Fold:
Amino acid sequence: MVKQLSWKVGGQQGEGIDSAGEILSSALNRKGYYLYGYRHFSSRIKGGHSNTKIRISINPIRSISDELDILVAFDQETIDLNAHELIQDGVILADAKFNPTVPEGVNARLLVVPFTKIAEEIGMAQMKNMVAVGASTALLGIDADSFKEVIEERFARKGQKVVDRNMEAITRGAEYVRSEVGNSFTQFRLESSDGKKRLYMIGNDAVALGAIAAGARLMAAYPITPSSEIMEYLIKKLPEFGGTVVQTEDEIAAITMTIGANYGGVRALTASAGPGLSLMTEAIGLAGMTETPAVIINTQRGGPSTGLPTKQEQSDLLAMLYSTHGEIPKIVIAPSTAEECFYDTIQAFNLAEEYQCPVIVLTDLALALGKQTVEPLDYDRIQIRRGKLVGWDEELPKLENSELFPRYEFTEDGISRRVLPGKKNGLHHVTGVEHDQTGRPSENPVNRKKMMEKRLSKLKNGIDFDTPVYLDAAHEDADLLIVGFCSTRGTIHEAKERLEAEGLKVNHAHIRQLLPFPSDIMLEQMKKAKKVLVVENNATGQLTNLIKMNIGMAEKLVHFGKYDGNPFLPSEIYKQCKELLVHGHI
Amino acid sequence: MATFKDFRNKVKPNWCPGCGDFSVLAAMQRAFANVGLEPHDVAIVSGIGCSGRISGYVNAYGFHGVHGRALPIAQGLKLANRDLTVIAAGGDGDGFAIGMAHTIHAIRRNVDITYIVMDNQVYGLTKGQTSPRSEVGFKTKSTPYGSIESAIHPMEMALTVGAGFVAQSVSSDLKQLTRVIEEGIKHKGFSLINVYSPCVTYNKINTYDWFKENLVNLDQVENYDPSDRQLAMQTLMENHGLVTGVIYQNKEQQSYESKIKGFKEEPLAKQDIMISREQFDKLVAEFA
Structure:
């Protein structure tokens, strides 16, 4: 019996790899297991090796694992590419159709199962993926009935016959493997879970759901990996709330339409990845200059240029902070779990209206597309705060003699009352040109200086964001502080646990508010540690440099980068930490 | 009821004396009053360039954005608040060079806004370079040997991508210009109005006199039928695009807003945005 294990299914893209993973994990999630699924895919639709790795545990997990216990293969390539990950005595479940062989040096048990043949007997060769799911359940000790609900929901619209056939595929796959290995084979049998109901979602789902909960009713976006799921979800759901998604001609139109919509008073967003964000840069400056709220989601992927469109990277960080020409107030927040994607997106809309500036929600591919178990989302935590927005029912004093409303009035906190177009007695001008308090263009140096200070002062005293830094830092005198952002949270956590099991004192800080930078919190944490290892999926140490710039302590800071397109493994971080602690450098 | 004077403000335009844009400004102000709008009902979104300043010269809501992007901003604004009369305005560089993709897609999308292009066939604010509307051979600072690229023909272009309202006018005909803008505002869908608005400083070819000699006024053409798309295209081609008046109008075409699933008459910006517990639970249940 095991507390956790990793299962991977692989084959040619388009062979039902995703749905095999989906169905297995949905059923297990409903039984109360914690899951984390990560897809390896390429920029093509059919063909090319693709795989989904799913980790199953009775305890919370937020990372892929180093090893693999069970590999399901639809072709020899899958075995050749992935078998080296298998633990000693791991199992390969392979389709009899391609006469599978185990590569030299791999010490795994090969179980040949006639996936395709069984599926054909049932009547549809493409159901081989369900036979494979069934075969896997026999090893995990999960009974086929656990899949009934999921299969019914998924295939109900295709008719009862399809539902029955899929169930039969699962049952027969399980029976075949059981007869091969016998009932006493318990090596991969899962311990029982707590049976609690939780959600299972990708970061993009959580962002989209958060946007609806925040009251966003318009999205303008251009499709791009790995952010498209956000627009796809919202175009399905927003009509129920009176809203819509516009698929624009490019990302420049997406961001400017978002700005226009926010200026008009609806909460609107756009989402993209690095290439799109590069195109949006000028307009983000416009939002800053005109003090128009705008929420922009960036699901980072491998750059530069087209880079690695379907692979993990965290190399847009400094661009998100600094890429606009000129100087504007901007907020950048970075959720690190799917749950945070939900709550932070809600917060992003509040911050955008309260501080009247663009807010970038920065995620990364592993978080955007990695599917994870999420604790039930709390309706009571949904809050809508619109700052100094003048309501439609509030009456404004008459503007005499074609005066204008002081939309950019100088105030103590730098934030002025915001009136929406259409409002009586609220006429004002909005321009990306430097302007006076009513929005009229002005090159007056005194006004220019005051306006710059007004805009920048809005964020000077910090922002009302709930958790600028996630801290798991119990040690006052730590050997090591590990710092990360976005999806690496769970991986760092596992490395930390292993180090602590060896008696080392390790703290973990995950930065969730990148701009304005939470210097006070980070300074305190860095003081408490002898060494600081910054774990980031980029080559140049962007977060490391950001910390250096804001805090200093360069002598303590060590950058650990990974930029091969894959997420960190817990063992990689563990090894680097050990190296650093033993030798003082990596 | 507001008169055209109510749409005037105290800002003195920074245009050159004699600039065609003064007439466009006056025509807009008259048109707004004539269709019965109040200043707060109107929002003008403009681009960058001499003409882009127009949003600051009307006593109405105005948004002066970035170069070439007036249209997506204007469409976002209209979708946020469909009670507003939204006008996008800018020059030929804004609409047919840097913003051409947006022009084409705004036409296809057909959000109910009116786009007024002040077409002077040259770049003015950057002090005299060629524009995509400059004719072959046109000499400017950036084309000292004469332009060797062919000019864009916006009216023909608009017809080919499915425009529902295509009109053209000229700054010297305030009456027609005002009427064309009124009709554009009343049209339910995207309206493209190209206005020959002479640049008295940098374009010594396409002058007021030149237009007087070369333009054909469709209002004076007997039996011209603007609902006939083929006739519209033929007329444009026969006259090298040099016609004024409503060239084509499809009154049957439905606006984007009217086709969006679940889109209400009440503007998005005025709706309650708090999700109910029941709605939330239903959404969340799909991820169980």
Remarks:
- The radius of gyration of chain B is 20 Å.
